[in-house]
Amino acid sequence: MTTTITGATGIDNIKAATGAVLQVVSGTKSSVVTNSTGTYVDTGLQATITPTSTSSKILVIVDQQGCKAVSMQTGDINIKLQRNGSDAYKFALGYFYSISSSQFRTGISGHYLDSPSSTSATIYKTVFKPNDGGSCTVQNDNANTVSTITLMEIAG
User: What confidence tens digit (pLDDT) does each residue in 61-76 have?
Assistant: First the structure.
């Protein structure tokens, strides 16, 4: 049996099985970001992927580290995933209560399967805000944390 492959890359006539992983990209962020406003701001964690087909799905895996509340504050931290600047998924609402210790830290992780229906470069990023007028932080430097985002293109 002979297989003919054409095109500059040699993969033009090859179709991956549905569910196959076609590509993986990732991003990291380790510097601290603090937010004491009532609006969402970038965490600095992002990655860009260019799907090879409009039928592809993108599995987004987020591990947002170093989430912190300051002493004598109660508060919620809201973290959302955005695709090209628009909300795609609300990952987490973390609740902190701190009265006797100097601060609490935690990591917030989540997964989301997206269908961008595009073959253009697509940016995924996380944004966050405090929910109650307090202050919250991600990638807290004192915790030596690194947040990660991984994007996997899945054949549709």
Answer: 999 887 776 545 556 7
DSSP assigned state of 103: E
Q: Residue 31 and residue 44: Cα distance in Å, rounded?
A: 8
For the beta carbon of residue 81, count every other beta carbon within 10 angstroms: 22
Give the position of tokens 């989301």: 112
- Torsion over CA: 80, 149, 95, 72 (sign): negative
Instruction: Specify the residue for token string 């202050």.
Output: 135
CATH for 21-154?
Answer: 2.60.120.1340
What digits encode the pLDDT tens for the residues 134-153?
A: 777 888 766 577 899 999 99
* Sole residue written with tokens 């009532």: 38
Phi, psi of 66 (to 5 degrees): 70, 25
SS3 141: helix
Residue ranges of the domains in the chain?
21-154
Q: How far is it, in rounded angstroms, from Cα 96 to Cα 93?
A: 10
